[in-house]
């Protein structure tokens, strides 16, 4: 099992040159900005003091500090520009490698049983990936800048006025370590709860929208609306509390930094009174502290982002461990045995949420080409068997030997046909390059050609939510047309004609029998009157 934290570190190290350049330039920009503030403060006050006496004004060197100020402002601008370029370049590179690697890992998980389509799981996963991606730009980079600014600030104090160090060390440690720790705790504490609440809200909203007609018919729409509103209010409240808590910690940090600045100014003035420090230097120290404090404030969100990123890596690792890669229990033999057949031996399967197994020691032999009818009462396991043969579900025990074809030559038509919100053409081809005559031929086989011709823009008519909505029967036939166009060798059909009138269903079966004469078609159906004498049949019984 790959270690996700190590994987992230490896990808970061791969891009270390760009990432390091980004950090160096960001530090240079911060140093230049703070030094610019401090030096120009010193320059203005020193020039003002020199201007008070004609002799001092004559002796004062206006040119060297002016040049330093200009130099610093140039290096700040150049540093910021370069830092944006390199740190964003590094981020993009890290993100693109990271996404590729993470999605490769995720694709190996047995999502069919984990129910990826559960909104909370998938949205949590996407949020985690975003948090992991933000580790470099929003955590490592600002934390490094802030840490190095703190070191440089302490060194400058040590050089200019060492007696100041004991006064600033405690507030500095608080602002750099304690407050960010508190802030990240506040963020992490509410993050998981807020995510769950958002997910619940999304689920209720989508359930309400998709069942609007039913709810209206039963006059329950208003109550469902109230429920949703209540959920939104609770989430808003939780969100507001979380923001308030975060703001409070930030405010406290700012207060600590202000106290530190006042202490620096007070000690600077005392040193000035005791003639240990020049007046202009005292003012410079004040501005230096203000500039450094501004950078140190970014420590809080940086540590929180690091916490979120690490928690996300941990969660991903946990789900990878929780779903060990399951070996494919199907065996394909398409070289030595050209004859199409499927042999199922001692198959055992039970859904993770269920104690009762759907299959126990199930055996079947299917010889092709031809039609095989799967029958049995509702809930006996017909769809499950099709998903097991298709490889969507993995058997706990037993084997499925598929001879004469490879895994890519199997296609399943599920009970529910999803219609994409795009043109009829794209809904049929699903991004395969298919010529127009082939499309019309497929439509003709499923008796949809007249319907397609009558659509406002023919094959280019948009289907789906908010567009032209195909009826239940039309959806089924679009599903069949997709399979015809994909031309697999082993076809798995889950109630393909449910909802169609008998005459139409019979016509379609007749066409498909001729068109698919060289394939194996395993068809789950309650309409057994469409079977022909040469067909095989498997009747599933409970247990
Ligand atoms: N994801 C799941 N988690 C737990 N149980 C499931 C899941 N999917 C299906 N089942 C259960 O497994 C059993 C077999 O379901 P399956 O859909 O294979 O039946 P079926 O024979 O195709 O039914 P029908 O003829 O009504 O379509 C049923 O008891 C069903 O409730």
From TrEMBL:
Residues 20-290 form the ABC transmembrane type-1 domain. One of its GO terms (molecular function) is ATP binding. Signal peptide: none annotated. SMART domains: AAA. The chain crosses the membrane at residues 20-44, 50-72, 134-158, 164-183, 248-267. InterPro entries: AAA+_ATPase, ABC1_TM_dom, ABC1_TM_sf, ABC_transporter-like_ATP-bd, P-loop_NTPase, Type_1_exporter. It is found in: Cell membrane. Its main location: membrane. Pfam families: ABC_tran. It is a multi-pass membrane protein. Keywords: ATP-binding, Membrane, Nucleotide-binding, Transmembrane, Transmembrane helix. Residues 342-543 form the ABC transporter domain. It comes from the Bacteria. The keyword GTP-binding does not apply. This is ATP-binding cassette domain-containing protein. It comes from Neptuniibacter pectenicola.
């Amino acid at each position: 099992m790959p270690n996700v934290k190590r994987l992230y570190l490896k990808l970061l190290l791969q891009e270390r040159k760009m990432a390091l350049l980004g950090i160096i330039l960001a530090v240079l920009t911060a140093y230049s900005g703070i030094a610019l503030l401090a030096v120009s403060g010193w320059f203005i006050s020193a020039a003002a003091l020199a201007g008070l006496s004609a002799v001092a004004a004559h002796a004062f060197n206006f040119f060297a500090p002016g040049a330093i100020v200009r130099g610093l402002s140039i290096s700040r601008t150049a540093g910021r520009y370069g830092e944006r370029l390199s740190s964003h370049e590094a981020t993009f590179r890290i993100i693109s490698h990271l996404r590729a690697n993470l999605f490769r890992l995720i694709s190996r998980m047995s999502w069919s049983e984990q129910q990826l389509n559960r909104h909370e799981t998938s949205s949590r996963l996407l949020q985690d990936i975003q948090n992991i991606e933000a580790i470099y730009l929003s955590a490592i980079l600002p934390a490094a800048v802030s840490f190095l600014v703190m070191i440089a600030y302490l060194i400058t104090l040590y050089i200019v006025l060492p007696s100041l160090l004991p006064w600033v060390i405690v507030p500095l440690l608080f602002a750099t370590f304690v407050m960010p720790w508190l802030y990240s705790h506040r963020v992490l504490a509410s993050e998981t709860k807020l995510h769950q609440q958002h997910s619940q809200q999304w689920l209720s909203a989508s359930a309400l929208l998709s069942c609007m007609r039913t709810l209206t018919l039963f006059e329950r729409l208003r109550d469902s609306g109230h429920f949703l509103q209540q959920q939104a209010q609770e989430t808003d409240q939780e969100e507001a509390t979380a923001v308030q808590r975060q703001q409070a910690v930030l405010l406290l940090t700012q207060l600590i930094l202000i106290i530190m600045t006042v202490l620096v100014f007070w000690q600077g003035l005392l040193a000035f009174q005791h003639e240990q420090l020049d007046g202009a230097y005292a003012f410079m120290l004040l501005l230096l502290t203000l500039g450094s404090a501004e950078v140190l404030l970014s420590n809080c969100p940086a540590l929180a982002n690091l916490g979120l990123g690490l928690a996300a890596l941990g969660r991903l690792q946990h789900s990878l461990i929780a779903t060990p890669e399951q070996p494919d229990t199907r065996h394909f033999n398409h070289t030595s045995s050209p004859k199409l057949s499927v042999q199922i031996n001692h198959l055992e399967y039970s859904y993770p949420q269920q104690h009762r197994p759907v299959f126990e020691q199930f055996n079947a032999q299917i010889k092709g080409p031809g039609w095989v009818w799967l029958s049995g009462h509702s809930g006996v396991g017909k769809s499950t068997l099709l998903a097991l043969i298709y490889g969507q579900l993995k058997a706990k025990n037993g084997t499925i030997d598929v001879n004469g074809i490879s895994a890519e030559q199997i296609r399943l038509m599920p009970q529910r046909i999803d219609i994409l919100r795009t043109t009829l053409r794209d809904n049929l081809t699903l991004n395969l390059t298919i010529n127009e005559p082939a499309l019309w031929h497929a439509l003709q086989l499923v008796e949809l050609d007249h319907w397609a011709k009558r659509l406002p823009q023919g094959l280019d008519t948009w289907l789906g939510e908010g567009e032209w909505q195909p009826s239940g029967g039309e959806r089924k036939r679009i599903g069949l047309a997709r399979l015809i166009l994909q031309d697999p060798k082993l076809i798995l059909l889950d109630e393909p004609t449910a909802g169609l009138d008998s005459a139409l269903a019979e016509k379609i079966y007749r066409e498909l029998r001729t068109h698919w004469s060289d394939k194996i078609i395993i068809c789950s159906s309650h309409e057994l009157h469409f079977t022909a004498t040469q067909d095989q049949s498997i009747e599933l019984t409970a247990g």
